Amino acid sequence: MNPLNYREMGRVVNTVGGMTLIENLIDKIMKWHENRNLIEGSTDKDQVLKLQQELGELSDSVCKQKDMKDDLGDMMVIMLNIMKRNNLTMEECLETAYNDIKDRKGKMIDGIFVKEEDSNKEHAEDLTHENEVPVYDKGFNISEGEE
Question: 16 forms bridges with which residues in the sheet?
């Protein structure tokens, strides 16, 4: 399902005052930021720290198999704040990200896409199985159980 395609979800694309529902929500969120002085009265660093906090909440929800809509929404609200303070749009950010990944090559290792150039870096020669990545913690190789 496309997250922005309401037709796929059986909904009609609603408009409010000539804006789509998503545009209306973004407008409300931006006003919420401004009314609380979160644009001029905060910094990118502050907002990134808040984003990390929300990422922790998302991680907790995923691990506990809880609903993650609020966590994802909170993260999007914070990212919109960072975009606003840097004069960026969602479209610009997504287009830049897509252009960065569209030709990327790599492989899935334990459910994670590992870029081809990353899989050729340090410890790549230590891979023992195609789907196994050794885990290193302060010189202790957990996958082999030796120091």
Answer: 19
